[in-house]
Specification:
flat, 762 residues, 25% strand, alpha+beta, 23 helices
């Protein structure tokens, strides 16, 4: 024991010391890696910022006409000596993405189309200086990064770009950072957030995809910054610190393998091992000698104990020696005396129990304090499948399956020491090829006022009961599993409205995570449709409800369009239950509303279309004569709209139609109907307006259209309107006649020189 204690203490000291040292070294390594990553990211940001600012400054000073910019591109680049020292190459591209000049010259043809390059697309779209994603350059496909800026003429119109190329394998920036080393194996890695490695200091590779095995690098692509211990993808553990750049969507990763970072721990561990071996070599012989001296009296004590147990010695054991050995002898003598007394008492009790349990229908066993069977009645013989002669002196827990052995032993020990009854369901071991029975087992302590003598155990066969209960539970679990995964909400309430069951979909509609009793369904939600509010009493009064479309509002403020079905379980009984099936109907209703809107509106102007306008005109004709003031229709036909589309393009034409639709909406009343009837033709229905007021409104619309101007590429585009006005009369028999009069007015307006309003009464 002394040797073991010494060994355990030494190993514990070594382990704790190693762990503390490793943590200290890990913290120091993390600080060092963080510092290096911060310095590299700061310096790289500074160099990129300087180049980006210089390129932007040069681009700002190239303000000139597009033609001069193209003709003098070569001369302009030749003057940029400062840029030539900062980049591997300079380019000037025109507004179409065609190469106009390069420096120094690498033999690329003038006019080379580079419009498909990512950097040109971003500059021409964003109109701002950028640092590009890495790409395969025109220099024999070498990986490169472009820093470019847009060039504008005096009217701030984009005429091209100037950019500087940095080859990843060149000597300017990235290769320099890739060659950085710290300690012996630490290195720098620079990558983009889009998943491309710009430079890998460990392998020397440029512009290769990031490997997905490293979770820290994957997180860095989403903006992560920090330091962590991870795997480099090749099975090596590393400490990695990530810092994001400000000037470009890049990040810098400083990497230090833990094999080098934690190397001092290995050297310290070797020293501790040699120290431990030296301590053991000195203390083990001393401890062995002292142990033999202390244990000599135990041999004589063992001989006396054996003789006393076999009956060869009637006197109590007596042995000289240490206080501990004498105490053991005293305890043994006491136990032997009590054992003899208990044995006599148990013999008497056994005869008493035997007479009581012979005819009992349940199995009864009496055991000693160790669990050995001392008595078994005939019913227990049947349950265990063995005669009493085979059961005596065997451990009762030995007849259980291994999975229940630990439970039984724990229960017995608790019952003996705490003098409590053990009760549980256990499985008997298989016997003669038959599966073991399930039994309900109860063990009570047999005790006197002074000591525990053993236990009495009662066993009852419950195999058939459990089989029936298991089948019922399985059916219930199957039903709950099916209901639990349904998209429809299913819940059950009692006569008072208290929720007895709700699946996950129902809980979502109720706006709660779980049912906390008491929870009343009608306190949590309200259910309404266009006609009434549905209460508990209304549902109880109904036999069954199918497909009730209503609105459910929960206490959390949620509102749902639902399709509700209600069934009754145990109808008419005191334990009647109401089962609700709730289907979220919001998506269907929203889709119907969307389709209805699209069927009645013009997709370009968001005005009513011809079909919807025709329906409103039908209503107006049906109501003609019911009002004192007549309803009037305006037909607006745009003048000179085709040249706008032909010269300015359809986008310009669409923009003009948008502006015109806004003008019409702002001019008319909310009760008026505005529609695009097709192409450049619009219709307005003015209920209860009268011809005089409608003519004034039409003149206001005509003037607004005449003043409408759309600018495109420096040119202004205008249109006018020929407007026909027709009153809806009670004598009209069809909407075609009304449309024809309004169309006639528009035609007359065009014939009279366009840009005017013509009223056609009858």
């Amino acid at each position: 024991m002394v040797v073991v204690v010494i060994l355990v203490v030494a190993l514990t000291v070594m382990l704790v010391g190693g762990l503390l040292s490793q943590r200290e070294l890990e913290q120091q390594a993390e600080v060092q890696v963080e510092s290096i990553a911060a310095l590299v990211s700061y310096e790289l940001d500074d160099k990129l910022s300087m180049r980006l600012n210089i390129v932007s400054h040069v681009a700002e000073n190239l303000t000139m006409t597009e033609r001069v910019f193209r003709d003098r591109a070569g001369l302009l680049l030749a003057r940029q000596t400062e840029l030539l020292h900062l980049f591997d190459g300079l380019f000037i591209l025109d507004a179409e993405g065609l190469l106009q000049a390069e420096a120094p010259r690498f033999g690329l043809p003038k006019g080379l189309d580079l419009s498909t390059r990512e950097y040109f697309d971003r500059i021409s779209t964003l109109m701002t200086p950028i640092i590009s994603e890495p790409y395969a350059s025109s220099y024999d496909g070498k990986p490169a990064v472009m820093i470019g800026a847009p060039v504008f003429n005096h009217n701030q119109r984009f005429i091209g770009m100037i950019g500087g190329v940095m080859l990843l394998e060149g000597e300017h920036i990235l290769k320099k950072f890739g060659n950085i080393r710290f300690a012996e194996t630490g290195y720098i890695r620079i990558a983009t957030r889009s998943g491309t490695t710009l430079v890998n200091g460990r392998t020397g590779q440029f512009m290769v995809p990031l490997r997905s095995e490293n979770s820290i690098l994957i997180q860095a692509m989403d903006g992560f910054e920090g330091t962590a211990k991870t795997d480099n993808g090749d099975g090596d553990v590393i400490i990695m610190s990530v810092r994001q750049l400000d000037q470009a969507p890049w990040f810098v990763a400083a990497v230090w393998p833990t094999e080098e970072a934690f190397a001092p721990i290995g050297r310290m561990g070797s020293g501790l091992v040699w120290t431990l071996l030296l301590i053991l070599l000195v203390l083990v012989p001393i401890a062995g000698w002292r142990f033999r001296m202390l244990m000599r009296p135990l041999k004589l004590l063992g001989e006396q104990v054996q003789d006393r147990h076999l009956g060869l010695r009637t006197q109590p054991v007596a042995i000289p020696g240490s206080i501990e050995i004498q105490r053991v002898a005293t305890i043994f003598n006491t136990l032997m005396t009590e054992r003899e007394s208990a044995t006599l008492s148990l013999v008497e009790r056994e005869a008493f129990y035997r007479s009581l349990t012979e005819s009992a229908p349940i199995g009864i066993a009496q055991t000693d304090v160790l669990g050995r069977i001392e008595f078994a009645n005939p019913a227990l013989e049947v349950i265990l499948g063995r005669p009493a002669a085979e059961l005596i002196d065997t451990l009762i827990m030995g007849y259980l399956q291994n999975s229940d052995m630990k439970t039984l032993i724990t229960g017995w020990q608790r019952g003996i020491y705490q003098r409590k009854t053990f009760h549980g369901r256990v499985r008997l071991a298989a016997f003669d090829g038959q599966d073991g029975l399930w039994i309900d087992m109860m063990s009570a302590v047999i005790e006197t006022d002074e000591r525990t003598l053993g236990t009495i155990t009662v066993m009852r066969d419950i195999t058939q009961e459990l089989a029936v209960a298991s089948a019922l539970e399985e059916e219930q679990r199957r039903a709950q599993s099916i209901i639990g995964v349904l998209q429809e909400g299913v819940l059950m309430v009692d006569n008072t409205g208290a929720v007895r069951y709700a699946n996950s979909a129902a809980l979502q509609l109720l706006g709660i995570r779980e049912i906390i009793e008491p929870a009343n369904f009608f306190d949590l939600v309200s259910i309404n449709d266009e006609n009434c509010n549905y209460t508990l009493e209304k549902f109880r009064a109904s036999q069954k409800i199918d497909n009730l479309y209503a609105i459910l509002c929960n206490h959390a403020g949620g509102e749902f369009d639902i399709d509700l079905t209600m069934l009754k379980v145990r109808h008419g009984e005191s334990h009647e239950r109401l089962v609700f099936v709730l289907r979220d109907d919001s998506a269907r209703r929203q889709e119907n509303e969307r389709l209805s809107w699209e069927a009645s509106h013009d997709p370009l102007t968001q005005l009513f279309n011809r079909r919807a306008f025709g329906q409103e005109l039908d209503k107006a004709l049906a109501e003609a004569g019911q009002h004192k003031v007549a309803t009037v229709m305006l037909l607006i036909d745009l003048d000179y709209f085709k040249p706008v589309n032909d010269k300015g393009g359809h986008l310009t034409g669409d923009k003009l139609l948008h502006r015109l639709a806004d003008l019409l909406r702002q001019t008319v009343r909310q009760s008026d109907t505005v529609a695009r009837l097709g192409g450049d033709e619009f219709g307005i229905l003015l209920p209860c307006c009268g011809v005089e007021r409608a003519e004034a409104l039409a003149e206001q619309i005509r003037a607004g259209i005449e003043a409408l101007v759309v600018e495109h590429e420096g040119e202004d585009y205008r249109v006018t309107a020929s407007i026909g006005l027709a009153q809806i009369n009670p004598t009209d028999t069809s909407t075609k006649a009304i449309m024809a009069r309004a169309d006639e007015g528009s035609y007359l307006a065009k014939g009279r020189g366009r840009n005017q309003v013509v009223v056609v009464l009858v």
